[in-house]
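Ticket #4471: structure export looks truncated?
Reporter: QA, pipeline team
Priority: medium

Steps to reproduce: submit the single chain below to the structure queue and open the exported record.
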Amino acid sequence: MNQNAPFWILAMLVAILSLGPFLAPYHPLEQNRDLANASPSAAHWLGTDAYGRDVLSRFLAGGSWSILTGAAASLLVLLLGWTIGAAAGLRGGWLDNVSMRTGEMFLSVPWLYALIGLRAVLPLNMKPRVAVASMLFAIALVSWARPARLIRGLVLTLSERGYVKAARGFGVPAWKILTRHILPGTYGVLAAQALVIFPRFVLAEVTLAFLGLGAGQPEPSWGELILGLKQAYLLREQWWRLLPVCLMIPLFVTCAIAARVAARRFRAAR
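Actual output as written to the record:
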């Protein structure tokens, strides 16, 4: 298989899901009680739920919410990690010690328990989606440690390269050395980290909904679509409830493969 195939597949999946509300055949909130819990058909490819809502439409609309929220949280993590890691690697000293020790503390925090605890202290009158977004961004604010450590180590390595030392010897300003010779060398590890972090945040939203801390009814979300899996008897009587999960799997698998390919390319480039 072409090494670029995982990236193209991932880009296609993300593009389709980001445009989910426009591609949905029905409005995700439209109810038809006469077709409640209908099995897959030509009119409803993934069947309907207990309220007669089209599951495919809710999957696409919920995917858009999950994908965009996960992408925004991932971008925040990478931006913080890149900034803190580069500063620690370049400046060293007390800044390096403080940032790395703080990062070690954050790495020891179990994010799932932190999410549950954070939801408990948020106001109950917050809109569900605002609450979910607030929790994900709060976790993003404390998830910068791993990419920061990787960027720090890479910046330290790049700072010792011959061309960087030569640039310093010729009196090139530090900011030019940073922007032209050091930071561009970190793009590969950022790309690999993005492919690892992104599905984690999407999965975090699904987990919150599964635990009853998500967007909630009637808002469509991926977590809401798998709530029925808590009741095992439904899987015998309404097997099509597994179909949304089967559609989610390619996104996470493709992200994992693309991350491995990106990491291999980065190591080869070094």
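Status: closed, not a bug. The export was complete when the record was re-opened. Leaving a note from the reviewer for reference: The chain has one domain: 5-18+51-269.
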